[in-house]
Amino acid sequence: GTWPAGSPAARTIIQQCSRAKVKIKPALDGADAQWAEIQEGMVVYVCFFHGATEDVTHEMVIQLKLSTGCSVSVLDLPGNVLFIPQDSLLGEPVPKRRVQYKGGCEPWWGAQLLSNLVFTCRELVAGSVKCAKADVKVEQGVYGQKQEIVLNCVEPMTLLLEF
C-alpha cells in the first residue's frame, strides 16, 4: 500500500550525553557482557515506519542536528553518536489512556535501514578532518533485542525529529 502523504517515515529522539553505552551481547558462559560505548556526544533513539525507504536514512544523517542553543550539525560538532533502535517511539496515544504501537516497518527491513543509517553516518565521519582529529565514533545497538542502556549527561538536552 502507499504511505499517506505527510506521514513520517522515521522518528528519532536525540539526547545529548557525556557518556552512553548499550549492551550488544549478554554475559554468557562466564564471558562478560559486551557493550557499544561512546563518550561526549549524542544518543539517537530511532524507529522506522512502514513504507520507509533507504532515502530516509540519507536525509536523517544530513538533518541530524544537535541543539546546543543553536543547531549544529553532527559533523560541525565533533561528538560521538550512538544509535539505539527503539520501536516504542511508534507509540501513539489512543482513548482510555492507552498507547497503541502500530505502523512499524518489518523487522528485517528496520534492521537494514538502521544498518544503512549507521554506515552512512560512519562514511561522513570518515570523510571529515574535524571528526578524525576528534576521534569521533559512531556506534549502534542491536536491532530487535532488548536495549539495555547506561546514560550519563550533565544536562539532558532532548530533541524529537520526524522524517
Describe the structure.
The protein has 163 residues and is α+β, with helices and mostly antiparallel strands. It has one domain (10-162): 3-Layer(bba) Sandwich (D-tyrosyl-trna(Tyr) Deacylase, Chain: A). The chain is built from 3 helices and 10 strands. Helix 1 crosses helix 2 (107-126). It catalyses: glycyl-tRNA(Ala) + H2O = tRNA(Ala) + glycine + H(+); a D-aminoacyl-tRNA + H2O = a tRNA + a D-alpha-amino acid + H(+). Its EC number is 3.1.1.96. One of its GO terms (molecular function) is D-aminoacyl-tRNA deacylase activity. It comes from Seriola dumerili.
Overview in brief:
With 163 residues, the protein is α+β, with helices and mostly antiparallel strands. The protein is built from three helices and ten strands, in the order ββαβββββααβββ.
- Tally of DSSP β-strands: 10
Order of SSEs, N→C? Answer: EEHEEEEEHHEEE
CATH topology call = D-tyrosyl-trna(Tyr) Deacylase, Chain: A
CATH superfamily: D-tyrosyl-tRNA(Tyr) deacylase
Number of domains: 1
Round the mean pLDDT to the nearest integer and report it: 85
Q: Major beta sheet, specifics? A: 6 strands, mixed
- Please tally the helical runs, counting DSSP H or I stretches of 4 or more residues: 3
**Span of the ends, CA to CA:** 19 Å
CATH architecture grouping: 3-Layer(bba) Sandwich
The percentage of residues in β strands lies in 35-45%
Catalytic activity: glycyl-tRNA(Ala) + H2O = tRNA(Ala) + glycine + H(+); a D-aminoacyl-tRNA + H2O = a tRNA + a D-alpha-amino acid + H(+)
GO cellular component, one term: cytoplasm
EC number: 3.1.1.96
InterPro entries: Daa-tRNA_deacyls_DTD, DTD-like_sf
